[in-house]
Amino acid sequence: MRLVKFIVIIILCLFGIYSISMNFVDESKSFVHHSEIDYPVDRVFPQFNNLQNFTTWNDFFNEKDNISYNFFSPYEGIGSAMKFSDKKNDDFGDLFIRYSNPNRTLRYQLFEGDSENPYLIDVKFIPSGNKTKMIWNIHTPKRSYLERSLNLVAEDFFVENIDKSMKNLYLLLGNKVNKDQILASVKYDSVMVENREGGLLLGVNVSARNTKDILFKNVIMNHNKVLNFVKSDLAKKDDEFGTPVLMTNPANLKDKEVSYFYGVPLSKRTSVSDNNFNFQTINPSKMYVIYYQGNYTGRIKNIQELVKKAKKDTLRNGQLMEEFLEEPAENQDVKLKLSLPVYR
């Protein structure tokens, strides 16, 4: 009995010491951190301004193995929002972009769990030649009396997270630069021969009116639909899927309506709950390839060249494959890799 009383007294004493010490800890905390990355601001800012990009390199999300996301339109800039959840560890929250001044300033609001008080995170971007300096102003949420001890470690947590995130972003942008360099060396409008490995695509079957504006808008819509599904519903990161592919019958490209499949390459089949999405298998084959840059409608001439060469070589052809080497956007030219499988 004495032992129990002794333990209770010790606990009460420790609680009393803790309570007294919390009088000297602020209910919230603000601090500033400086960072720098060796890439220009026009490459860096889009990685912050789009929450789907943001989650691929930010260590706060990267270190969570079982996390899933839901992203809400608009997918970049003011009003962007997402929910994240790690059910295994009972970890969830919301992230919002409340202010966005392109290449200059961003403000995030981060809510963790059921808390109604957010973290406020302001990031200022300062161009410095081919480098970008960033000033992070972080304000922690108001905490209850018993939770104030978290403010004692908040700064160390954020500084470590930011430094790790900058390393991740540097590597990510390095891969993108390599891709840009490869694109810069591409020879357009020349027919080449490649051997393509087989693969697996996850995407949607679509039919659309074959007019200049309507078809391209439809392709952009389904491009975004497929990528959003793969990134948010399947929680796939950029390095877990390949370049989006549009597959269609080249003989039907002059019809009033065009049917096509739009999907992204995945390494293996996964469970898909949305019946709008399905898998298609690509068989390994010899390909006639041509790269095209320009108005989306103008690609028809290059496709005809591929079909013409197949006929000249007395070969049959399969479904045409169109790969967008850059994100398709309305009223902008496209960069495409057009591939036509051929066989005897």
Automatic annotation (TrEMBL):
List where the protein spans the membrane: 6-25
Is Transmembrane tagged as a keyword? yes
Q: Which Gene3D superfamilies match?
A: Regulatory factor, effector binding domain
Give the keywords, sorted. Membrane, Transmembrane, Transmembrane helix
How is this protein named in the record?
Answer: Polyketide cyclase/dehydrase/lipid transport protein
Q: Show the taxonomic lineage.
A: Bacteria, Pseudomonadati, Bacteroidota, Flavobacteriia, Flavobacteriales
